[in-house]
Amino acid sequence: MKMSGGPASLRMKIALLILAILIAGGTLFYTQSLVGKLQEKERQYAMLYAKGIEYVANTSSPESDITFLFENILKPIDFPLINSDPHNKVSITDKYNITDIRNIKYDTTLSKRRLERFFENRIKEMDKFHKPILIMYKDSVVLQKIHYGDSDLVNQLKFYPVLQIIIAALFIIIGYIGFSNIKRSEQSNIWVGMAKETAHQFGTPISSLMGWLEMLKMSYKEQDKVIDIADEIENDVQRLNKITYRFSKIGSKPEIKEKIVFEEVKRVVDYFQRRLPQSGKSVELTLSGNQDASAEINSELFEWVIENLIKNALDAIENKNGKISITVSTNQSKVEIDVSDNGKGIEMKRRRDIFRPGYSTKRRGWGLGLSLSKRIIESYHKGKIFVKTSAPGEGTTFKIVLKRC
């Protein structure tokens, strides 16, 4: 039951890094694809505009065609566009011929020479990214050139991947910090819980030993009673050795063998039945069901699970007439163990939390027994453990499901 989170933590870091790269790469690829499509669409508009002017230049009656051109083609253009002569010069009249310039802001107070220089520089910038479109006359003479740039939408999309990568990076950083804090808190709960679990495990046999010693003092003259008490003391000493063995095996792979499930459960039940009077509670502990079904289990660890469930049931019982019933049943491929009590029950919203390390509703709670039980059953026995039924004031039933041999 290894508790070191080194390899798992490293895998999480690598997974977060890979996720960040995938998000960044996917965002960049998708956005660049959109940018490419929009640029191609804008180029088609520019080509259409150029073909329109070319058509008008090559027709004999252009007036109606010019009206159609500027009303239906020029107006929808929302990207920077400059219509120049073959030498990249913009013709500027005294009133500034703004029909040759689209979606470019410029200072109308500039002199004609400075304005021409301004447009020459803009043309050079545009031609770096987009090849100008030629307007031909009679398919042989370059009449004009159409220079165009990217629209505001395309420029914004170019920076969008950077923004999204920053957001993704912040998300991953926050997630990593949060994960690290949760991990540290969980590890702290585990070690605190382990210390308390150790004390809790030793508490039962030690209390029992103290009780037997008192009885031994009172019955030292009665030989038969002394022998019986000595046997029980031996059982408690063996239990202490078993607890030591359990904790010594934390971190190593347990040995799994085919066992009769009923017999494994009965050993735990018998131990508790002899010691229930010393608990100060009036509790009836019973075992019933299939006595022949077998499963592959580790006796020491499986007994630990049953002990934890019985102790959990004893802690939950607050009335005078407590009942704990354990039933072993089978179906075609499974062995099922139900542990039921008539204790205070578990609220629906807390059912998931009870298996979390460090969680406990008891004042003296150690918060690790059920977490260890879940790990033992699911990780080492490839089974399941869960709350079958529970209701406040009526009790709880835990179910263990193992693969039948």
Could you characterize what this model shows?
The structure is a single chain. This protein has helices at residues 6-57, 63-74, 112-129, 152-218, 223-248, 261-275, 299-316, 369-380; strands spanning 81-84, 101-102, 133-137, 141-148, 257-260, 283-289, 294-297, 322-330, 334-341, 384-391, 395-403. The relative contact order is 0.08. With 405 residues, the protein is α+β, with helices and mostly antiparallel strands. Among the domains are: 81-148, no CATH class; 254-405, Histidine kinase-like ATPase, C-terminal domain (Heat Shock Protein 90, 2-Layer Sandwich), CATH 3.30.565.10. The model is unreliable at 1-6 (pLDDT under 50). The longest helix is centred in the middle third of the chain and has 67 residues, at 152-218. The two termini are 24 Å apart.
In short:
The chain is of the alpha+beta class and 405 residues long. Helices cover 54% and strands 17% of the residues. Among the domains are: 81-148, no CATH class; 254-405, Histidine kinase-like ATPase, C-terminal domain (Heat Shock Protein 90, 2-Layer Sandwich), CATH 3.30.565.
